[in-house]
Structure formats: structure tokens, C-alpha cells
């Protein structure tokens, strides 16, 4: 049976605010962790949980009764220059969230990681990979999404790369890398997250770009 009660961190961000709107439209009960003063950034039907995403003691006791936990916190517009921020925000927040989710006994943890390995953005990849290891070490049932780049408002320049990707995917020597580091759209990410929430994983389920696109198709059909 699909879970109908979801706890979200990063709910006011690029993906989070759109995901919350879609969940509410589907009659999920949604609670989102926000800093004090940011409550109004959430839809009126979304319950605000005021706390510090880097400090599990500030929100762990409020995770229940949700049994899906969606972790979307991250430094905006990642770049190699933000290595220190990745550790201070992305890594610290996934450490806090995994701890809180495990203590609350959530049935399903959803995490947006990143495609890897890759020749660039090594600090970012290391932090996200550490997040995946934390999920496994706590033995959480989880869906881990690994997009490389999410196309959408304010994130459109990589559209110019699509013809190159089409060529690389046809060549045997570059096909696997091109698919692993494929581009997905914001709507595909939202649809894949909705599909993951509706059908919780048993164990750890990985969605690479191709699976994200496939999950989006299934969500659209549903």
C-alpha cells in the first residue's frame, strides 16, 4: 500500500516546492522541515516543521507519523568552487536526516544523489556517495535517484548538449558513460520521485537517468 504521509527536507527548493505541490494534489499529508521564518514559503496545506536541518535533535521527534522521508537539501547550483559548502551543508544534512529517519523508524527513505563516477565535480560526488553509504549503513529501505543534471527553469543551458548526447549514445565506446551522465528534466525528476514515493522500495533501489525517465513515463501513465 502506498504511503500517504511524507516528511520532506529541502521543501522550499528547486525540486522540493514542486514536489510538495504535486503530493498535495494527490492527497498526501505532507510535512516539511523549514527554518524559523520560512513557514510562509510552503503551501498552506503543507504542515511546517520548524527546525535545523543540520541538527537531528531539532526535528527527529517530529518525523513520525510519516513513513516516507524525502531528503532534498543541497547547495544550490553546485560547482567545483563549492567543495567546502558541500561538506558543511549537503553532507551534514544527510547525516542528520538519516539519523532522524532511522530513529523514527521510517519505512522508506528517498534521496537525490548524483550520477557517478564522473570526471568532474569530484567533491560533490564524494559527498553524495557518502550519503548513499550512510543510508546503507543504517539499513534503511531507500530509493536513491542519481541524476547528472536537471534541466528546468534557470537550468537550461545544457539543452545545447542534447545533440552531442545523441551522438555519444550511438557510439559503443561512449554509450554507457553518456547514459550514466544523461540529462533529465525537472518534470521527469518530479514524476520519478512521485513514483518512488507511491511504490516504496524494499532494500535499496537505484534510479540512474534512464530509470528516472522510465519512472516518469510510468507516473504519467498512472
Q: Would you mind describing this structure in some detail?
A:
There is one protein chain. The protein is of the alpha/beta class and 222 residues long. Helix content is 40%, strand content 17%. The chain has seven helices and nine strands. The protein has helices at 16-25, 83-104, 122-137, 162-170, 175-180, 186-198, 209-221; strands at residues 5-9, 29-34, 47-50, 68-71, 108-112, 142-145, 149-151, 183-185, 204-207. The strands form two sheets. A seven-stranded parallel β-sheet has the order 3-2-1-4-5-6-9, with helices on both faces. The longest helix has 22 residues, at 83-104. The model has no long low-confidence stretch (mean pLDDT 89).
In spatial order, strands of the major sheet run 3-2-1-4-5-6-9
- Number of helices in the DSSP assignment: 7
Which quaternary structure do these chains form? single chain
Q: What general form does the structure show?
A: globular
Roughly how many Å is the radius of gyration? Answer: 17 Å
Low-pLDDT segments, ≥5 res:
none
Mean pLDDT: 89
Topology as H/E string? EHEEEHEHEEHHEHEH
List keywords for this structure.
222 residues; alpha/beta; seven-stranded parallel sheet; two-stranded parallel ribbon; 9 strands
Offer a concise description of the structure.
By secondary structure, the chain is of the alpha/beta class.
